[in-house]
Amino acid sequence: xxxxxxxxxxxxxxxxxxxxxxxxxxxxxxxxxxxxxxxxxxxxxxxxxxxxxxxxxxxxxxxxxxxxxxxxxxxxxxxxxxxxxxxxxxxxxxxxxxxxxxxxxxxxxxxxxxxxxxxxxxxxxxxxxxxxxxxxxxxxxxxxxxxxxxxxxxxxxxxxxxxxxxxxxxxxxxxxxxxxxxxxxxxxxxxxxxxxxxxxxxxxxxxxxxxxxxxxxxxxxxxxxxxxxxxxxxxxxxxxxxxxxxxxxxxxxxxxxxxxxxxxxxxxxxxxxxxxxxxxxxxxxxxxxxxxxxxxxxxxxxxxxxxxxxxxxxxxxxxxxxxxxxxxxxxxxxxxxxxxxxxxxxxxxxxxxxxxxxxxxx
Length: 362
Fold this sequence. Notes:
The chain is mainly alpha-helical.
C-alpha cells in the first residue's frame, strides 16, 4: 500500500511539475512582452535592408520569446506599408533564431548539476545551430536571388483562395486560468513577472527531472526510445504533430531538454524531433493565414514554411554537422559553465545589437 501511495505521489509530482514548467514558459513570454511590445514595433519599423531585418528578427524575438509575436507584428507593418515584403522575410528568418533562446534558458536550470548540464545544454544548442546554419544557407539566396520571396509568392498565388482553419492550442485552455490570474496579480510590472517566471521555471525543472528519474523504469525508457524516437521519421513526425497541436516550437523543444538532461534520450535521437517542431509551427501559421485570407499574411507564412523546409532538407541528411557543433560547445560549457551564460548573451543580444548599430551608422 505504501509503495502504491509513493508511486502515485511521484506521478502527481511529475504532472504538477510539468504543468508549472509550461506555465512558467508562458509567463516568461508574457512578462517580456509587457516590457517590449511598443519597442519591438518601433524597432521592426526601422528595417531598411534585409541584413538589418535579420538581426532585428533575432533581437526582437529573443526579447519577447515568441516568433509568433514577431511574425504578427511584421505582417501588420507590411500590411500598413511600413516595411516591404522583401525586408519582412529576413525578419522571419531572424525570428527563427531568436525563438531558440527559450530552450537554451531551460537547459540553464541544470547548471548546478554538471553531468546533467553537459547533456542538456548541447541539446538546447542543437535547436540554435539548426536555425543558424539554415540562415547561413537561405539568407544569401534571399539577398542574391529573392528565392524565398519568389517561392512564397508562388505558393500564395496557388493557395490564396483555398481557405484554412484556425487552431486553438489545448495548452491555452489548461494554462489560461492560472496564467490570467497571475498576470492580473502582477499588473504591468513586467520585470517582477519575469523574475517570478524564472524562479518558477527553475523550481519546476528541478522537480520535473527528479520525479522523472523516480518514475522512469527501464520499460518506460525503452518505450520512449524505441517507439517514440525509434527512427528519425517517428521523431520528426512527433515533433511536427505536437507543435501543430500546441502551437509553440519553443515549448515542444523545451520539453525534451529535461529528458536529455536526465539521460533518457540523446541529442542524436532528438534532432529530427526538433526539426519537425520547427516545421510544425509553420503549418499552424499557414492554416491560420489561409483562414484570414490576407495575401501578405499568407506569403509570410509560406516564407516561414519554405525556410524550415529547406533547413530540414539540408540538415536532416547532414545532421552530424549541427550535432557535432552543439556537442563541441557543450563540452566547452561543461568545463566552464560561465561560457554558457556568455554564449546566450552574445548570440541573442550582443551580436544583433552590434550589427544593428553598425548598419544604422552607415
